[in-house]
Amino acid sequence: MAVSTQKKIRIGDLLVQKGVISQEQLMSALQAQKASGSKIGDTLIDLGLITALDFLKLLAAQLGITYVDLANYTCRSAVVRLLPEAYARRYKAIVIEESEKDLLVGMADPTDLYAYDELSKMLKKPIRVAVVREVDMMKAVDKIYRKTEEIGSLAEELGEELSPVQTIAELPSDVALKDAPVVKLLRTVFEDAVSAGASDIHIEPDEQVLRIRQRVDGVLQEHVMQERRIAGALVSRLKLMSGLDISEKRLPQDGRFNIRVKDRNIDVRLSTMPLAHGESVVMRLLDQSGGSLNLEQIGMPAEMLRRFRAQIHNPHGMVLVTGPTGSGKTTTLYAALSELNRAERKIITAEDPVEYRLPRINQVQVQANIGLTFARVLRAALRQDPDVVMVGEMRDQETSEIGLKAAMTGHMVLSTLHTNDAVSTALRLIDMGAQGYVVASAVKAIIAQRLVRGLCRRCQKQDPLDDNQRAWLQTVLGDQLRRYRFRKGEGCPHCKQTGYTGRMAVYELLEIDADLADALRRSDSAAFSAAARRQPGYEPLALAALRFAGMGLTTVDEVMRIAGVVDENLTAYIAKRLAPQPAEPEKTRGPRREAAGRQEGEAQEEILDLTLEDVAEEGPKVDLDAFDEFLLD
Ligand SMILES: [Zn+2]
Fold first, then answer.
1. What is the distance in A from the centroid of ligand 1 to the CA of 457?
2. N or C terminus: fewer CB in 10 A for the chain?
3. Do 454 and 504 contact (CB within 8 A), yes or no?
4. Angstrom distances, CA of residue 166 to CA of 64, 153, 158, 161, 568
5. What is the pLDDT of residues 264-308, one digit of tens each?
């Protein structure tokens, strides 16, 4: 229902009544209000007599309506759009929920009866009013409407300009024609994508409509346009910009170009695909100005980071980063390259694709179709007097042989392999045909990594664990299990009901010491695995992930997902590593508990003492959002 006119609120009197402000304060506020002409509520807030939030809550209580915290509320685009953008801005209102019989509308000023009447007329459905903070409302409106209306009108303009008979060849291809509607439209599409933080833009012609979809936070958002016939012009312009053959429409092509949007340098990787109703284009946006990657940001525990650093600063040798696709390997490699990137060091890379451009580094794009393979780039690179060589991937025997040789002849070689863990990686090189003694002397260190999703900080609670999880943990942890408490997210607006926000990397670092090198020389895999597990600094991925779960940073589900099948040796190993250490002095306990930030009775304390030994000192300080932002792989 509307806010009743009879119930005229004198918010000032109410505040005095409630003892929030004094009569004198009200009088001076009223005087100030007369001078400024603004509303009494705003005046009280300006004078610092009440916070905006308290004021709104009080107002809501007085009016008998609800206060909705939009900052923690996920607005559905389709619902918000029931109200056109201009009205939303003019009346400072936003549609929050739609039910069969009515709409819940958030208003920054629910006492504005004129606005209420206009909104009722406009929305053609009974409305219930809630009070919202104006800043939150404006943010939500900015986010939902973004530039979509502008895109729509530019599309229309372009549609009108293109007479049905005009072919693309007649379209001005001169870049100097900046005002051409197609250029304006594309610019707006890119600006919108950048301000929304989109990672990809999809342009998809359908039979009747043109869809432009953007991937934001991993989820596609759709924008449908009726101007189906502008698709050809858009796609052609994009192909032109990336140097592709615009007359070839039957075969997929890929290319790239660079644009500056909102003072940011965006590297665009584009690919086309012939669909039933025309060519579709997907563009991946790589922000080149999004701050430089560095090793501090990759969430590696401090002690491991110290050792990893020492390894990559070796004048020669090979350091490998391994893991399946999507494990963040590329991020780790780029962070390492950034650290090594100094004027006195020549760095050459062979990449497929070049995902991130680094100043001063000689980056080579592998192009297998013209014979420019990893092996060929690598061979050429070695004639260019490099200090450091990065090979995107050791894909075949030839590449790995040249890489290993380079590592033995005075170069630091960084590369990746598609293996599951650090231990199997060195052995994989031998399987690929390398001699054991070569691997033993070339390879210095191996990082294996995975990404796990981070637990939502707002809705996490104790995880009761299901039978399957309990059985798995029992296998891994044995009777240490009872010392653990795990957490999971229930789902809330903050995490879009998933229970997770952001991702973090879990690492395993294996340094090749004398024992390991010896096992490699003999190509003895059993001895190699045993020697790895004896290494004091080595900890398998599963255990590193379990630590995160024990710290409430991720869930058992995530740990199980990356841990895969657990072998007996690992179980025994973990049980040993997690055994209680009675010698631990009492005084070190306090700060650790505090740093871990959770106290749920005795069981929790035990857990922290036993398994999260050095969380406070060397635990990863992961800014999940920042980390997610520059994940590449
Ligand atoms: Zn949540």
1. 6
2. N
3. yes
4. 61, 20, 12, 10, 70
5. 778 888 999 999 889 999 998 877 655 567 888 888 998 999 999
